[in-house]
Amino acid sequence: MNNPDTTPDPNKPHRLPPVAIVLGALFFLGLMGLMLYGVTRSDRPDRDSLPSALIGKPAPAFSLPVLHDPSIHVTDRQLRGAPYVLNVWGSWCPTCRDEHPILTRFAETKRVRMIGYNWKDEPSEALRWLEQLGNPYMVVIADQEGRTALDWGIAAAPETFLVDGSGIVRWKYSGAITQDVMDQQLIPALEKVEQESGGHKGAPDLGAQR
Amino acid sequence: MLAEIGQVLLILALLAAILQSVLPLLGAQRHLPALMATARPTAMLQLLMLLGAFVVLTLAFVRQDFSLRYVAENSNSLLPMVYRYSAVWGAHEGSLLLWTLVLALWSAAVSLFSRQLPEPVVARVLSVMGMISLGFVSFLLFTSNPFVRLLPAPAEGHDLNPLLQDPGLIIHPPLLYVGYVGFAVPFAFAIAALMEGRIDVRWLRWTRPWTNVAWAFLTLGIALGSWWAYYELGWGGWWFWDPVENASFMPWLVGAALLHSQAATEKRGVFVGWTLLLAIAAFALSLLGTFLVRSGVLTSVHSFAADPSRGLFILIFLGIVVGGSLLLYALRAPGIGGNPHDPKRAFALNSREALLLANNLLLTCACAMVLLGTLYPLLADALDLGKVSVGPPYFGTLFLLLMAPLVLLLPFGPLTRWQREQGLGPVSLLMPWAVLALVLGVLGWWLAPQGKLKAAAGIAAASWVAGGTLYYLWTRLRGDGRPKAETWGMLIGHLGIAVFLVGALLVEALNVQHEVALAPGQSVDAGGYTLLFEGVDGVDGPNYHADRGHLQVLRDERMVTRLHPEKRMYASGGQPMTEAGIHPALGGDVYVALGESLGDGSWAVRVQIKPFVRWIWLGAALMALGGLITAFDRRFRRLPEKFR
B394 in a domain, yes or no? Predict the structure, then answer.
């Protein structure tokens, strides 16, 4: 838009220099193309999610208390051996409410371990939330201060990670999981993980130290 | 019934827009005075219809007619009355209606205050404005209709976005839109001149006050938005380089360039093509801003709609308007500027023209830099370079680089003669002021407890601009008598920059921030103040519950004031909103935001001392005032020699 043509060539007062026209047109068309690209993907809820830097890398090491009994700690090592889904939520997060029924239905298939990650929440509020809406998680770990969340690169809730049996993060989604995301992304990603691990499907015990 | 009336009014507005864009233009091209004369009545008709539609929508909010989907989604029965009015423009559909209404107001103003202009010019200007309105009214009707019914009507609505339930946000959008949309007038004028194929400098004189008023309102709108972010978001920042802030800042920068180049064109007949291009660019950037905000292409606190059909509609419209204008410009502009070899228009490197050119280049470069930074994340994504976000490090650094020479050159502008300066005139005149600015800067460096370099730079830059500007005022008062309104406007605008520089740089340098956990009875010291925390209690507002903290602010053992920062949970849900407790003062604010409860009765509290932060908005207000005063120079209003 800011055509850099300030001083027309004095020798040809009645025409813009062709270079200026070509550059201006290219700039304008490029800008329009870029906008068009932006528009066509503006309805994707995950359009701004960073493809987690963690994908393909080991899940960050952590040791966090269990929401229902803070004297018990769960670590990343204990979770190894089979894939798990880590779902970040908080009772303060209205969007988490939206994805809750979908997660619950998925959890009922008992296909994979669902770990709840209660982020920056008041334990009493979180417990009440689970009482009201039901608890789809095998275990809920609580990160009240949000320090471990930094390692996971969690910027907003809800977020969902899929970690394979050897502790590698394989998939991540920011925003509420819809049925489409579940069917078209999470389940295929899980299938891939299961195939690679040689059809080992069963979910072993959590093995938390009691 | 209401919704149907609104619907009909919108359709009538569409018809009026069609008439307004077709008939006068046809008349101007074919030299038919009867058709040209339709310009004013159709513009008025258009205004009447849109005003009607706006009133209908407002009534629907006041009466809480939840059978309108837009009303149901953006208000509920608990919403206080004043916010029912502002909820009209609280979301996508209504704010577009406001946009269109503001455009109609500008068109009506043009039709009232354009008697000095030849009829064909008026016809073309109003016709171009009618075309823009046509685009927006169809956008309203076909993709964003605020009058869509929701059947069966719900008993209760959602809520107005709680962030918008704030006095500052009631007037922020209207002011911003008056500015944004106001650039349609110089734009329509530029297009009319290009269509006509010639430009009379006296017509340019007519557009100058319009640009000034639009720019002044845009300045106020942006400043108000910044002030709101400061007290409402709880971070104590005043500018975040958020894409939507940038979207309003780009037309502001180009608008500022346009103000100056228009003055040069009007007075000296130079930069004609450049002025026309800037007029097109300013409005194109307003449209781009509207597109960026309304399409949800970029992430921002402001983007609401993420419906691709809407984004696509504005994009196509933007493409037609801007592409068409630039094409017209490429075809016609080279022939319009008159003879470039005219010796009257020549100027030397040490002339005021050259300084204004530098001003324009710096401002447009700054705008291009903001545009690049704003769109870069999208570009990187499109080219598969990965996801990036561009933040303050990029903008801050580049902006400083571009603004430093601007500030340096500013005092020279008014003191330099047109065409050619004799010898070293202004340099020697300003030398004492440069020395004074440096001395004050060193003094600032000496006195500042922290951020010494920034504090010194801020003081030196501000006193340089203020000193140079006041010196110019002194020479004018001593010399050729009373300055005109135009000169006063320029002086006040430039002093506004000095005041702004004090605020922006000193708050950056001297800001003090403490994040502390406080139990009742505990206190914290910050920047010479002591804040004593008394505790938190619960309060209920009309549609929210709040935790309200109580703090005593003490200085030298004496209580200055009490602050009550709040954390509000609105009944409609969502994240908690902060209401900072602020003790405002010209020398610096005491700013307290309430964080989380930490159990055991103590709370996380963020205390900030923000020296001179008020000067930022005071400076912006002065700049706006300068623009307005310039606009009311009698020279622009004089009903002169009929020129044709």
Answer: no
Helices (H), B448-590: 452-478, 485-510
Is B297 touching A (CB cutoff 8 A)?
yes
Residue A102 has pLDDT above 60, yes or no: yes
Asked if residue B16 lies in contact with residue B45, where contact means CB atoms within 8 angstroms, the answer is yes
Q: What is the pLDDT of residues B178-215, one digit of tens each?
A: 999 999 999 999 999 999 888 887 778 889 999 999 99
Q: What is the DSSP pairing of strand B558-563 with strand B544-555?
A: antiparallel
* Interface predicted TM-score (ipTM): 0.82
Q: Which of B273, B277, B315 sits opposite A39 (nearest CB)?
A: B315
Looking at the structure, tell me whether residues B6 and B139 fall in a common domain: yes
Q: How many CB atoms lie within 10 A of CB B192?
A: 25
Question: Which of A40-44, A59-63, B286-290 has the least mean pLDDT?
Answer: A40-44
pLDDT recorded at residue A2: 42
User: Within this chain, do residues B100 and B193 fall inside the same structural domain, yes or no?
Assistant: no
Check residue B586 and report its DSSP letter.
T
The answer to whether position B303 is within a domain reads yes
- Predicted pLDDT of residue A209: 39
B295 touches chain A (CB under 8 A): yes
The domain of B590 spans 512-610
Domain co-membership, B157 together with B181: no
Size of interface A-B (CB pairs under 8 A): 101
Report how far residue B260's alpha carbon sits from residue B212's, in angstroms, rounded to the nearest whole number. Answer: 10
Sketch the domain layout of chain A as residue ranges. Answer: 1-43, 63-196
**Does B283 have pLDDT greater than 70?**
yes
Shortest distance between the Cα of A17 and any Cα of chain B, in A, equals 10
Query: Are B213 and B185 contacting, i.e. CB atoms less than 8 angstroms apart?
Result: no
Among chain A, residues having any CB pair with chain B shorter than 8 Å are: 1-3, 5-6, 8, 10, 12-16, 21, 24, 28, 31-32, 34-40, 42-43, 45, 47-48, 50-51, 92, 94
One-letter amino acid for residue A37 of the chain: Y
**Do B211 and B311 fall into the same domain?**
yes
CATH number assigned to the domain with residue range A63-196, chosen from the 4 options 3.40.30.10, 3.60.21.10, 3.30.450.40, 3.40.190.10:
3.40.30.10
